[in-house]
Design a protein that fits this description.
The protein is an alpha/beta fold and 475 residues long. The protein contains 15 helices and 16 strands. Helices cover 43% and strands 16% of the residues. A five-stranded parallel β-sheet has the order 5-4-3-10-11, with helices on both faces. A four-stranded antiparallel β-sheet has the order 6-7-8-9, covered by helices on one side.
């Protein structure tokens, strides 16, 4: 295993990664709340998680990776500074779309998984849905309560931050939460013992019907937003594991609360050794948000005819710790660069002939390979890794070795460079012949269809029948 250095939000420093049980690595990523389509800002975080997973594998580690899907308990008050207030996002979306909350979850989970594949993100061992692990969440709240770190008020069971601190724990390891004053954006809850306390279990309102609610030792209700990640990550990765990934927005409350409730229950510190946070994405230099009309989704990208992998390539242009500014021009430039790279890879594939490398070119190949690995190991420096890719393209090593080297690099890049095929510009005459042949085949007129195949061949093309339709190639 090669050395890997990561910026750990827990310490604020770039540190050498030391797995708890090498070469095994436990890794968890905070996934989406499935009430709407993820934005391109969200997808940047999930791409960061994917790159980290791929780099771990590339460097010889054996990561075990899970990602949650929040389908209950994330309240709208999170937008204004108090995640324990407001409507449940799932219930709100259900009212808006005239569906059940369960239908909302199914629809957006299906879309998320499909979009995950479009960006060529590595699937986790399991997408853990909060509603599938209610029992585990209740059990964890009970453990916290038995340790004396929870109390009951009218609207739920709350975590007691003051009791946690009196027991010798430090609250707010990832952010300076002790200086955050409640009430600057929302009215404080007068029943909470401390403004920093947060809900572990919420009671169903008596004046409204909830679609998602469960029996518990404290009454009918639903889990608080934070408890799901602790319960599910510990179920699959243990009470202490290696890496937790998320967006920078989760650094202020969600992740510190995860740490507090987990360590309160287990008594073990640290809950997670390395916290990795991706920076924000702006759009045209402005904050991204629905109110701004610029909360673009992957569907918006595709509707403009842009390959989702061009968005992946665009993310590589900036380090994950640095804010990146999205513009349509920048994305189109990424698409052009990706197309150019694909053209080079295809040319290397078609022109490759195995030759015995001279000593100087062997040294150069090895040096390029080493530079790529060094870039990855240095806190996932994707801009530098991408620079090495283009250095390979422009080098004088044989095409065979360029192709093989880029295919190896693509194990991390995930741009599907090994699947590149020659695109064919088919003129109108050939297109009409292909359509005629398809019509004849559907009518069972295979002899006539074969005659058209010959005409297509005479025009310089071959046609290959596949399950999803004919593929035309220049012969």
């Amino acid at each position: 295993m090669a050395d890997l250095y990561l910026t750990n939000s827990l310490t604020g420093k770039k540190e050498k990664f030391e797995a708890i049980n090498p070469p095994n690595v436990g890794m968890y990523t905070c996934g989406p709340t499935v009430y709407d389509y993820p934005t391109i800002g969200n997808w940047r975080t999930y791409t960061l998680s994917d790159i980290l997973f791929r780099v771990l594998v590339y460097l010889g580690f054996h990561p075990k990776f899970y990602m949650n899907l929040t389908d209950v308990g994330h309240l709208t008050g999170d937008n204004v500074g108090d995640a324990d207030t407001g409507e449940d996002r799932m219930e709100k979306a259900a009212k808006k779309e005239g569906k059940t909350a369960w239908d909302i979850a199914e629809f957006y989970i299906k879309d998320f998984v499909e979009s995950f594949e479009k960006l060529n993100l590595t699937k986790p061992e399991k997408f853990t849905r909060a509603t599938e692990f209610i029992k585990e969440q209740i059990s964890l709240v009970e453990r916290i309560q038995k340790k004396g770190f929870a109390y009951r008020i009218d609207d739920g069971i709350y975590f007691d931050v003051s009791a946690y601190e009196k027991a010798g724990f430090i609250y707010g390891d990832l952010s300076n939460l002790t200086e955050i004053k409640e009430g600057t954006r929302v009215e404080p809850n007068p029943d909470k013992r401390d403004s920093r306390d947060f809900a572990l279990w919420k009671f169903s309102p008596t004046d409204a019907n909830r679609q998602m609610e469960w029996d518990s030792p404290w009454g009918v209700g639903f889990p608080g937003w934070h408890i799901e990640c602790s319960a599910m990550s510990m179920k699959f990765l243990g009470e202490q594991f290696d890496i937790h990934v998320g967006g920078k927005d989760l650094k202020s409350t969600h992740h510190p609360n995860e740490i507090a409730q987990s360590e309160a229950a287990t008594g073990k510190h640290p809950f997670v050794k390395y916290w990795i946070h991706g920076a924000f994405l702006t759009v045209d230099g402005k904050r991204m948000g629905k109110s701004e009309g610029n909360a673009y989704t992957l569907h918006d990208i595709q509707n403009k005819g842009i390959d989702p992998l061009a968005l992946r390539y665009f993310y590589f242009s900036s380090h994950y710790k640095s804010q990146i500014n999205f513009t349509w021009e920048a994305l189109k430039s990424a698409q052009a660069s990706l197309n150019k790279l694909r053209d080079h890879v295809l040319a290397f594939k078609e022109n490759r002939k195995r030759t015995i490398l001279s000593e100087d070119k062997l040294d150069k190949t090895n040096a390029l390979n080493a530079k790529f690995k060094i870039a990855l190991a240095d806190d996932l420096n994707m801009p530098q890794a991408l620079a090495v890719v283009w250095e390979v393209v422009k080098s004088n090593i044989p095409d065979y070795d360029k192709y093989d080297l880029l295919k190896v690099f693509d194990d991390v890049l995930g741009l599907n460079l090994g699947k590149v095929e020659r695109t064919v510009k088919v003129d109108k005459v050939v297109t009409e012949l292909v359509n005629q042949r398809e019509k004849l085949r559907k009518e069972g007129k295979f002899d006539q269809a074969d005659d058209i195949r010959k005409k297509i061949f005479d025009l310089g093309f071959t046609i290959e029948d596949k399950a999803d339709g004919p593929v035309v190639k220049r012969r």
